[in-house]
Amino acid sequence: MDQDIANIHHDNGQLRTVSFQDGSSIAIDVLYADPIFKEHTSLPSSIGCKLTDKKRISITPDQQTSILGVYACGDCTSLMRSIAAAVASGNLTGP
User: What is the rounded CA–CA span in Å between residue 45 and residue 23?
Assistant: First the structure.
């Protein structure tokens, strides 16, 4: 769903409905967000690394970027932003 939210309604923390800017609303039990990711450096794009549609660095299973010899791992490559995931991807990096 890609609409602007006007209000989130709940009863003592239990989600009930979401109202949208256009006046419509829907009943919900759970709400997931897809926040916009903004890289804090322009280095990957400035050297020509291909980015995903979510603005993460595009990689192969061994963390190779679109540039031969350049590898990336961690939060800049994944939707799963956590220390554990970053460390795990670092262990996969390289030949």
Answer: 40
Task: Give the span between the Cα atoms of 34 and 1, in whole angstroms.
Answer: 11
Calculate the CA 37 to chain-centre distance: 6
Do 73 and 63 reside in the same domain of the chain?
A: yes
Domain span including residue 17 = 1-33
Cα dihedral: 7, 12, 13, 15 (round 10):
-60
Q: Which of 50, 56, 51 is nearest to 68 (CA)?
A: 50
Based on C-alpha coordinates, what's the Rg of the chain? 19
Question: Each residue of 78-87: pLDDT tens digit?
Answer: 888 889 988 9
The verdict on pTM exceeding 0.85 is no
Residue 90 has phi, psi (to 5 degrees) of: -65, -35
Task: Name the H helices within 3-51.
Answer: 43-46
